[in-house]
């Protein structure tokens, strides 16, 4: 198949607000510094649904969504050195070129090399590798894992230990890694107090990372009472349902009271801007650090009294958990294989590609942590 167009099936998002539909797509061979991957499994992330809904400022249609995949390299373009045919790989929506000002800074994982074209739904040369019904189809987040074959830039893919089951470690392409990195990369978590708002895949990953880092007190906060058991399984030492507080009592005031001044670290894992404010205000005067992970709907803004920051709280955020994919993801896969990081436990639903639209519905049910699609 190398060098030839591959005809396969993909879930295409034709227009915002409509379910994805299965289509026959033609996938062109990889050009120089590109990799064609046979995708075997993919998770569905809330960000896929968010873009499909039409809320993403960068959303382009028609496109092939999906950015939490695992697969095998089918062929490589000229100049590709880091992966070879047959490698088990995870596509990276946060690329790592190791050359740009961000990669070299040692301060950020936000590689700039392919970010502009990625945001425009095309490969670095400005064109798409996908066609369906005679029409070009846009790429998404540099990954497009809802296709049986996809093409990505060589800076946007990493080979991982082939002993790791791809139907599980595909989830390291987004949610689990984001959450894990967001907490484990912070200095000072050992012995500290941590508050996690929202116990979906992201919140559970933060809880698990906080436990791994030996935080002393880990408080999970969720409006869904069924999340208590989940939170405790992933490392929470306490669970609070804010809807059960006395009328008019703010969750941040309650947390400040029970922690003698606030939490050392808090995390928004909901994408709700009001929760982001609560998380910031629940962090400790003088040194609290609050991390935004949730993606808010287009047009939403955060607010708080500036006094909250004047009095020593830090408001920060993270994309892909600050993880540099090519350098660090293979190590995370090994931590999973060594039993240090949960992955299997997040998979609550499994679907065949034929049922991928139902997989989007699964995600909106409170009992779904992650749905993995068998391509
Ligand atoms: P999810 O919907 O599975 O989980 C959200 C949880 O928050 C649910 O359990 C829900 O009950 C709870 N919740 C809702 N309102 C609440 C409130 N007012 N107070 C407390 N809890 C509340 O979502 P997820 O997959 O865990 O993703 C969470 C967010 O992270 C999404 O916005 C997603 O787009 C974003 N995300 C960001 C990145 C990144 O790189 N920054 C990566 C992946 C996902
Ligand atoms: N494209 C949107 C924002 C969407 C967004 O914030 N994406 C997160 C990843 S969510 C993964 O599930 C992210 O990493 N953003 C950083 C980046 O460079 O894309 C918009 O508002 O335009
Ligand atoms: Zn995601």
Automatic annotation (TrEMBL):
The protein's matches in PROSITE patterns, at most eight in alphabetical order, are given as:
ADH_ZINC (PS00059)
Domain Alcohol dehydrogenase-like C-terminal span(s) in chain numbering: 202-334
Q: What residues form the membrane-spanning segments?
A: none
Q: Which Pfam families match?
A: ADH_N, ADH_zinc_N
Q: Which GO terms describe its cellular component?
A: cytosol
The record ties this protein, via InterPro entries, to: ADH-like_C, ADH-like_N, ADH_3, ADH_Zn_CS, GroES-like_sf, NAD(P)-bd_dom_sf
* GO MF annotations, alphabetized: alcohol dehydrogenase (NAD+) activity; S-(hydroxymethyl)glutathione dehydrogenase (NAD+) activity; S-(hydroxymethyl)glutathione dehydrogenase (NADP+) activity; S-nitrosoglutathione reductase (NADH) activity; zinc ion binding
User: What EC number(s) has UniProt assigned to this enzyme?
Assistant: 1.1.1.284
The positions making up the signal sequence are none
Per UniProt, the keywords (alphabetical) are: Metal-binding, NAD, Oxidoreductase, Zinc
Name the reaction it catalyses: a secondary alcohol + NAD(+) = a ketone + NADH + H(+); S-(hydroxymethyl)glutathione + NADP(+) = S-formylglutathione + NADPH + H(+); S-nitrosoglutathione + NADH + H(+) = S-(hydroxysulfenamide)glutathione + NAD(+); S-(hydroxymethyl)glutathione + NAD(+) = S-formylglutathione + NADH + H(+)
Report the residue ranges that make up the Alcohol dehydrogenase-like N-terminal domain in this protein: 32-159
GO terms classed as biological process? formaldehyde catabolic process
Cofactors, names only = Zn(2+)
Q: Which family does it belong to?
A: Belongs to the zinc-containing alcohol dehydrogenase family. Class-III subfamily.
Name of the protein this chain belongs to: S-(hydroxymethyl)glutathione dehydrogenase
Organism of this sequence: Calocera viscosa (strain TUFC12733)
Ranked from the top, the taxonomy reads:
Eukaryota, Fungi, Dikarya, Basidiomycota, Agaricomycotina
């Amino acid at each position: 198949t190398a060098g030839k167009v591959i005809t396969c099936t993909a879930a295409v998002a034709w227009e915002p607000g409509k379910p994805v539909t299965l289509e026959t797509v033609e996938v062109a061979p990889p050009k120089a510094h590109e990799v064609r991957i046979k995708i075997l499994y993919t998770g569905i992330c809330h960000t896929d649904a968010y873009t499909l809904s039409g809320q993403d400022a960068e959303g382009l249609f028609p496109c092939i969504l999906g950015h939490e995949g695992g697969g095998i390299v089918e062929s490589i373009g000229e100049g590709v050195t880091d992966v070879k045919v047959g490698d088990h790989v995870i596509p990276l929506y946060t690329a790592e070129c190791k050359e740009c000002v961000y990669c070299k800074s040692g301060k950020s994982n936000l590689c700039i090399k392919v970010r502009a074209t990625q945001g425009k739904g095309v490969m670095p040369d400005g064109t798409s590798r996908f066609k369906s019904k005679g029409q070009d189809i846009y790429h998404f987040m540099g990954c497009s894992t809802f296709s049986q074959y996809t093409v990505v830039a060589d800076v946007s893919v990493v080979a991982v230990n082939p002993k790791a089951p791809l139907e599980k470690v595909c989830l390291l392409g987004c949610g689990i890694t984001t959450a894990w990195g967001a907490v484990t990369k912070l200095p000072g978590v050992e012995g500290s107090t941590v508050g996690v708002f929202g116990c979906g895949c992201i919140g559970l990953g933060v809880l698990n990372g906080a436990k791994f880092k030996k935080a002393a007190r880990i408080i999970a906060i969720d409006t869904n009472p069924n999340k208590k058991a989940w939170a405790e399984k992933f490392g929470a030492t306490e669970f609070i349902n804010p809807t059960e507080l006395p009328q008019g009592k703010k969750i941040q005031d309650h947390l400040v009271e029970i922690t003698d001044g606030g939490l050392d670290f808090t995390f928004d894992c909901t994408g709700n801007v009001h929760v982001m404010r609560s998380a910031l205000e629940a962090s400790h005067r003088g040194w609290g650090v609050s991390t935004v992970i949730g993606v808010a709907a287009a047009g939403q803004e955060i607010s708080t009294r500036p006094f909250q920051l004047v009095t020593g709280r830090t408001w920060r955020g993270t994309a892909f958990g600050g993880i540099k994919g090519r350098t660090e993801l293979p190590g995370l896969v090994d931590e999973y294989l060594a039993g240090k990081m949960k992955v299997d436990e997040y998979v609550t639903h499994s679907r065949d590609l034929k049922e991928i639209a139902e997989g989007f519905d699964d995600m909106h049910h409170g009992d779904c942590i992650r749905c993995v699609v068998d391509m």
